[in-house]
Amino acid sequence: MSLTALLSALVVIAPSAAVIVVFWRLGSGRIPLPATTTWIDEFSVERYRPMLRLLDGTDLRFLGSHSVLTPKLDAQLRRQRCRILRRYLRSLATDFSRVLAALKLVMTQASSDRPDLAVLLIRSQATFAVCMVLARVQLLLYMFGIGTVNVGALLRVFEGMRLELRTLVPRTAGSAA
Fold first, then answer.
1. Structure pTM?
2. Could you tell me if residue 18 is inside a domain?
3. 78-101 burial by CB neighbour count: b if 16+ within 10 A, else e?
4. Is residue 41 part of a domain?
5. At 90, which helix (H) or strand (E)?
6. Each residue's pLDDT tens digit, 56-73
7. What's the burial of 105, exposed, middle or buried (CB within 10 Å: 0-12/13-18/19+)?
């Protein structure tokens, strides 16, 4: 096998494997769900809005324009922001998994089959997994001063699933999932 073929295979296999691992983690394991449905309202995309501007570079450009930003300070700020964003991503993945688990529970207890919801869950889980892998790759590049991280798609998928759950579980329900 030539080096070009090996590199080509790696370029195809590595991202696919990463997506499969993230997809598997999102859908596996027991996710503890609270005894009441009020927790659904506590999930909010607003909690994650700071992610959108955390790495946008506005602050770094401001510091650079005032000759305060040294290469050492730039690297330190990038590392700190990457740590913060990683925590946000972990929290978002946990919340997304909880919403998925609740939706699956609602599906299994529904009086009628919902193949449309099953398809939506699988599609959303796959989309979220791909977006999560892309965000982590972008985060790695950002740490080395290349580009920024776009988490908008992750937030849209999360919000879509949260809204779907909200429509399926009445606000007056006393016990949930």
1. 0.73
2. yes
3. beebbeebeebbeebbebbbbbbb
4. yes
5. helix 71-108
6. 777 777 777 777 778 888
7. middle
